[in-house]
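Go through the following before class.
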Amino acid sequence: MSSQTVPPKDSGSPGIPSQGVRTLITLLLFFHLFALFAGVAGNFGARSGLRRDLRESPGIQPYLRTLWMDTGYDFGLIYNNPYDFDHVCQIELNPTAIENEQTERTFVDLMPEGIWDGLRQRRYLSLAQQLRLHLGDNNEEADLVAALAGGMLRKANIESGTHLFRCLIQQTQDPVSIEEIAPEMRDPEHEDWFATFYEADLILDQNRWSPSKREDRGSMTQSRGNLQRSR
């Protein structure tokens, strides 16, 4: 009976690192993935104590800084052009009637109230930005406004009246201290931080809200120079 040669147990397959090298690579990958998780968790939105502790784990911050990854993950790069800033759409209900009766103004916003930061919010902001991209193209512009306005009014259960559709763009804020800004302007959502670039009257025409664009009347917002600074 012929004897069989049994290969040594510690002999690895050709081209595969040894067990010790594989273990080291696994540990390095685990540390890298953990550092990424801790960096994102510790630099996104409001940070809790646990998320801060994760980011401050030994070796995490130096590693992330070396890779230029210790940054805010909820902020994107901008190039200071109009498409870098948020666009919002709103409808003012029956503005003519409100002016005559001197009652409180009522608005319907494209962005649902209480929506969280994230992909869904960015989609609503992108819808408003698409209108900016299609300005001047009468067919695309009118169809987009009619679709947006129809959905907004339908959701608000508005089936009649003459309303005003308005699209706004957020303005940049001057890099000044909080003491130099008037108290009412310290809210970044204050209406004076937004400039109107599109307005159209909405008229119900055979179950469809048709926009009648208002002509450019020059600057539609007041100069912020006298509004934002305390004197």
Remarks:
- Confidence is low (pLDDT under 50) at residues 216-231.
- Helices lie at 19-42, 49-55, 60-66, 95-101, 119-133, 138-155.
- The CA atoms of residues 89 and 167 lie 4 Å apart.
